[in-house]
Structure formats: C-alpha cells, structure tokens
Amino acid sequence: MSRPGDPAAFPVEGLVVLDKPEGLSSAQATARVRRLFGARKAGHTGTLDPAARGVLVCCLGRATRLASALLARPKTYEAVLTLGVETDTQDAAGRVVAERPVPELSPEALEEVFRRFTGEILQAPPAYSALKHEGLPLYAHARRGRMIRKPPRPVVVYALALRGIEPPRVRFAVRCSAGTYVRTLAADIGAALGCGGHLSGLVRTECAGFRLEEACGLADLENRFRQGEDLRPRLIPLERALRGVPGTAVADDLAERIRQGRPLARSELGPAAPQGAGLLQILDRRGTLLALVEASPGSARLIYRAVFAGPGPAP
C-alpha cells in the first residue's frame, strides 16, 4: 500500500473521478488525490471554482496525456442564480457592486430568456478567472485593481433548463462546451432580465463523460487511506477513460509501429478506420491502449494525440 510521498510503492496511471468539495481549488483537490495514490504526475480535465462542488476528473501518471481530449468534452451543471445583486466576481464570493429590484418572473418569461442563451453564443471571460494576461491570471490583475477585459469568444450552450423559481433565486441546469463560464452565463441572464444577478450555487454533475453518482468523495478516500485500504481499485484504467470514443485492436506488427509513433495511414486500419473526422482509440490484441489518434477530413494520415509506448513506467 502506498503512503503519501512514496510514488514508487506501485505504478499509478488512470483516472480518479472525484466529487470535489466546496472550499478547495481544483489544483488543491488534485494535489491531494495525487498524494493519496502516490503518483508523480497529476492533472485534471477542467477547473471547477473553489465555491463549487461536483465532478473533477483527476488524471494520474500517463493518463495526463489524455487530459486535453477529456477537457474538450461537454460539461453539465446544476446552478442557482440569485437575482437583483451583482458582484465583481459574478458569484457569491465577490464584492457587491450593484443592487436592483427583482421583477415578478414567470416560467414563460425565464424560458424565453433562456432560449436567447442556448446554442452558440459569445461570452466575455470574467475579470476574475484563471485566463492569462501578460503571464499572470486575470484574477491576479483584478486583485491589484486592474480589471482586464478579454474579448468575447464563442461557446456552446447545448441545453438550458429551468428547474425552479424561488424569488430572488432561480434554479437551472446547463450543459455546455468546454470554456463556458457558468457564473458569466448567470450574470448575463440576470442582465437580460433587467435586474442583474450572480451565481450563488453550482454543482457539476457530469464532466468528461463521468457522472456525479460515480464520483468518490475526497474525505472518504482519505479515510480509506488512513485505514490502510488499497486505493488502486478506485482507478479507472486508460482503456476505460474515453467513454464514447470508438476503439479498434491491431495486430502485433502494426502495434509495434504505433508504439514508436511512426506515421499511420487510415488504410492500415482496414474497415475500422474512421471515415470522417474524429478520435479513435487504438489497442493491442490484449486490450491495452496504444494510442489516441485523430482523423481530419480529407486526410489519409491519422494524427497522434497520445502514444503509450510499452507497459508504461512507474509514475
């Protein structure tokens, strides 16, 4: 059994689907998971604000090579919008900058506004965010009194559903693309209603294809570790990390070429080759993940997104 700070205790690679508690940053939560499993390398698949809780997918060891593909997947949230109060951070952690009366709201009026924020929209990143400007996160500039406004960028809101009205609070669910700020969405909805608002509650219920019901609590993991439980069964292996991404097994000679990252043509995969654009997992005959590749329209070559050579070193 591994102990914190002893990464050589067993080779670690895979995903840990964590239910991040409120009050921890995503980086802090990931660091605690890394220490529990004794991994040298760790990352996650999308920042969740400290005030929020919910699914945080932690990548350990060689699974960090899949982080970018997992990060690009849609995410789902349950959120609470408090109307009539605007804050500088667009959430409950910020300083109140404006207060306005809240009009009487009907479900029909709210759903009409929700329709305006569904589909591809332009969204300006908040001044308090981790986006970089001149080498520093925007929140670092903001804390020094320098509010940097980045230009709006396109994001996609796949679904926006009203869950309930409890004035001045509105509960809603949202499924959106990577890079969408739910607190900015909440503030923009408040502005569209004419009274302003801020995000006062957020739970991420799905991320990278993994649901909240599947997630492990951090306190539970730490308690199991203290009791000497082997945490390895909690790891999701590489081969099960990319849900919904098709896979194909290849013969030994082609597997060896792929391990070496040699150029790969669609035609070499035969009928399993992707016909259009998209990702494909390539496995050897034992079911071990060899590589993640991507097909581009009109190209005969497959592009490597990650290669897993050999059995994998200790993390």
What does this structure look like?
The protein contains seven helices and 19 strands. The protein is α+β, with helices and mostly antiparallel strands and 315 residues long. Strands 1, 2, 3, 4, 7, 10, 11, 12, 13 and 14 form a ten-stranded mixed β-sheet that branches. A five-stranded mixed β-sheet has the order 15-17-18-19-16. It has a two-stranded antiparallel sheet with strand order 5-6. Strand 12 and strand 13 form a beta hairpin. Helix 1 runs parallel beside helix 6. The protein is globular, with a radius of gyration of 22 Å.
- Specify the helix fraction band: 10-25%
Determine the CATH topology of the largest domain. Pseudouridine synthase
Structurally, how many domains make up the residues? 3
Number of helices: 7
What's this model, at a glance?
With 315 residues, the protein is α+β, with helices and mostly antiparallel strands. It has helices at 26-37, 67-71, 107-116, 138-143, 182-192, 218-226, 252-259; strands at 14-20, 42-44, 53-60, 75-83, 85-87, 96-99, 119-123, 132-133, 136-137, 153-166, 169-176, 197-207, 210-211, 216-217, 247-249, 264-265, 278-283, 289-295, 301-307.
Give the helix/strand layout.
Elements: E1 14-20, H1 26-37, E2 42-44, E3 53-60, H2 67-71, E4 75-83, E5 85-87, E6 96-99, H3 107-116, E7 119-123, E8 132-133, E9 136-137, H4 138-143, E10 153-166, E11 169-176, H5 182-192, E12 197-207, E13 210-211, E14 216-217, H6 218-226, E15 247-249, H7 252-259, E16 264-265, E17 278-283, E18 289-295, E19 301-307
